[in-house]
User: Which sequence fits this backbone?
């Protein structure tokens, strides 16, 4: 077993590496540029929503009460378009704050990669053994969380596949850092 205190450097460095990689993926490679589609008649949609609706997750049609989900009126509404989900964010959302929270998430993932790898791999373990445990753990953390978005919320599977590829890349680089800096 390896204690978490001896893994502070790979925790921090792997989070930094993933943060930089994600920036390169999104800003340089650009394969996520098609993840979101423009809504037809966007100005009309924005006018219809107005400014009184607070940020949050919305579904439509919405029964109002979970007990009414199977009421004939609600069932009939769900048979006809539009049916969907809408996420509204704060106007003027700060990219700096969002990137800061993303980095904290990367640290969070790296902490748990360190925990699992440290509990299953001893001091002086072979690089490949550390790489395998850290890589699988990192991949699962970065990739699997987004799959339910396609299952439940209608996110296109092409977006989920790209995010899963990102998760694989992040997991591999996390594994490389842990294998390199393993005590």
Assistant:
């Amino acid at each position: 077993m390896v204690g978490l205190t001896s893994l502070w450097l790979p925790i921090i460095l792997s989070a930094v590496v993933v943060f930089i990689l994600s920036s390169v993926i999104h800003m340089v490679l650009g394969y996520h540029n098609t993840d979101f589609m423009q809504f037809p008649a966007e100005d009309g949609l924005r006018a219809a929503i107005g400014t009184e609706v607070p940020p949050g997750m919305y579904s439509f049609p919405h029964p109002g009460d979970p007990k009414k989900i199977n009421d004939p009126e609600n069932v009939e509404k769900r048979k006809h378009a539009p049916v969907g989900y809408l996420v509204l964010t704060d106007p003027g959302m700060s990219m700096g704050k969002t990137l800061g929270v993303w980095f904290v998430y990367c640290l969070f993932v790296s902490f748990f990669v360190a925990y699992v790898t440290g509990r299953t791999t001893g001091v002086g373990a072979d690089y490949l053994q550390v790489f395998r445990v850290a890589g699988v753990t990192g991949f699962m953390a970065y990739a699997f969380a987004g799959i339910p978005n396609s299952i439940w919320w209608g996110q296109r599977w092409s977006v989920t596949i790209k995010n899963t590829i990102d998760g694989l890349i992040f997991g591999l680089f996390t594994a490389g850092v842990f294998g390199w800096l393993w005590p």
Residues 19 and 103 are 6 Å apart (CA to CA). The mean pLDDT is 92.
